[in-house]
Amino acid sequence: MSYSVFSGVALGGALCLGSLNGVCGGEAGAAALALSLEVASQVQRYERVDFAIRGVGAYGNPYDPAVIRVDLALSDPAGQTLHLPAFYYQAFEYRTLPQGNRRREWIHPTNPPQWRARFAAQTPGTYTAVAVATDGRGMRRSNAVRFTCFTGTPSTEKGYVRVSTRDARFFECSDGSPFFVLGQNVAFVGADQYLHTERAGEVFRTMAAQGANAARVWVCAEDWALGIEARKSAWGRSWGWQPPFAPLPGRDGYHAGGLCIRLGGSDAVHVTLAPTWPVAVRPGATYQLSGRVHADPEAALRIELEGLSNNEPARGAPRGSWVPFARTLVAASNQWWLGRLTLRAEGAGGVLVRDLSLREAGTGPELLWEAEPRLAARGFYNPVDSYLLDRLLEAAEREGVHLQLCLLTRDHYMHDLRDPGSPAYQSAIDDARKLLRYAVARWGYSPRVLAWEYFNEMDPGAPTERFHRELGEYLEQADPYRHLRTTSGWGPAPKHWTHPNLDIADLHHYLRPNAPPPWTNEVAVVLERAALLRKHAPDKPAILGEFGLADERWGRSPHMKADTNGVHFHNALWASAFSGLSGTAMFWWWETLDQMDLYAHYRPLADFIRDIPFTTVRLQPVVLASQPSGCQVLAWRNARQMAAWVFNPEAAWWQEVIAKRLPTRRDAETIRITGLNERDYRIEWWDSWTGRRVRELTARTTRGELTLSVPAFDRDIAFKLQPVR
């Protein structure tokens, strides 16, 4: 369902904890809207331009454009006006600090929240920008600011990835250069994950150094990793959700339907807060912990937290009304995180608590936003994870890695997407549009956003056609950068792959003992899955968005650690690159890749495919066989050229890793190629494990045929066939 009441939504300077009518102290009065540039007035193409928008005011739900809509009206060098959404923004101070046996991210809010806009110019010239704020009382416009986009300094930036205008099976960049996806998943990034954002940036750096160019990242991971729109709560976790919530008593509950925390009586006597992100504090700083208590006559609230002063039990009023309480906390000189915070009911009877808040000096930004019971599952974009995605995207920009961002938390939407004619279905569309608007506003500027992925593994049988159509049409209007749109299913989903408003056909598949086709030959599996994708999506980009070794229950295969050379990873990369797809299989087990340091497998393939003209010469995928052993030859080719990978089936991962049978050396293989133009050709043979050229020669076709002698190899080898100029 959609939520319209936000009792814990970030507002001008703090979280409005306890507001039950959707407004924190009433809407702000009209103020002068002011726009300023946060960067130099001259920028290069595709460089981010930041705008600060002041004077918007405080609103009950700043994430809902139906409540307050802030846009940037941009006049481009041609005089056309572009309307770009703005977004509500909380700044943070960031460090990584030791905690126990690992380093943990320390993230502390700085300054009140404000409105911002981001833009990247694609056309040189002078731009004029005006901020526009629209609410129930009308529209306000800001002053105008100007900036210039210039091309005086050479740039290696190629622009945004799109569907190729010359061959729709592939991707290309804004400058027309082909973009062939080579990468992996880096899906879970979070406080208790293998990777936090700093470490994820290091993974991007390592990937890029080895030639990889793409990563798939979840920002929909609910409460175990990054989740922009997800229920993150200090009172429990999604996999065991039993929070100590109760309706507000009396007329408060009748009129507002609010929630509070209930302790004692027939309920648990105490509860310890457990935010999904450790609450950061500044050493030596003073904080105010406050709230309101409603207690039975013989009961009181005891707050257990080291460092509190004046920590007397908080009691209710004689007539049972809500009584405010406030306690001062002074962080120790070496304290960087809030300690263990426990609420305990003392005496006979029960205690209710609401509006729990922690702020530096009592006026700073809210630190306990996860303590609000009525924080919406949809429509609230938590400030910490949004900031961390900023950091993750900035790391990708530094390293040249493109991110496919999985945006929508499936389990908050799936129940409402069962009946396309229902109000719940419309509500899901409306809420998804709002999140997409926020994503475009905050992260859409970046050429390193490869695609918006709506869901990770939605039910392929769900009636989502209308959902995808309306979101796709919305993005065509709202996203001026025209980022690609995709989604994934938990099984084959041909109706996703053929949908005209989804740009990429995406299939997930794992090598599992109980899953056809035969899991012991990764090359055969890749070819079969690629053929299935291309059967339904012959003329759009198609990828294997997740791939890897798994057990019967979808967990990490126990065989993976035995594959110390990454044989299955290597073979799946090369097979998918020549399978007819638009990129390589995206390996799922990023933690294993990192622990085993298997990134070097990217470099030989990256070097080999770098000059393949995927988008301009209408290459076709073919599978041939060598003689006399019948090694597989997977190739892209036309009548003028060919790039191919030669695979010895005895080198499949099961044979080498589990059966312990090393492949037979092949030293007398030949490959017959027909249908070539009559001319001289240069043949380059590559070692597909090291990336070295092992042989170069020239040969001339005879009646359009060539027979190649394959250099001796054990596992696999690659070659290029190009006309002599």
Structure notes:
The structure is a single chain. The chain is α+β, with helices and mostly antiparallel strands and 725 residues long. The protein has four domains: 10-150, Immunoglobulin-like; 162-228 and 378-614, TIM Barrel (Alpha-Beta Barrel); 244-371, Jelly Rolls (Sandwich); 643-723. The protein is built from eleven helices and 38 strands. The strands form ten sheets. A six-stranded antiparallel sheet has the order 17-18-25-20-23-22, with no helix packed on it. The chain has a six-stranded antiparallel sheet with strand order 31-32-33-38-35-36, with helices on one face. The longest helix is centred in the middle third of the chain and has 21 residues, at 423-443. It starts with 9 loop residues before the first strand and ends with a strand.
CATH-derived architecture of the largest domain: Alpha-Beta Barrel
Overall helicity = 10-25%
Count of the separate structural domains: 4
Strand order of the largest sheet: 17-18-25-20-23-22
**Unreliable segments (pLDDT under 50, ≥5 consecutive)?**
1-29
- Looking at CATH, which topology of the largest domain would you report? TIM Barrel
CATH superfamily of the largest domain: Glycosidases
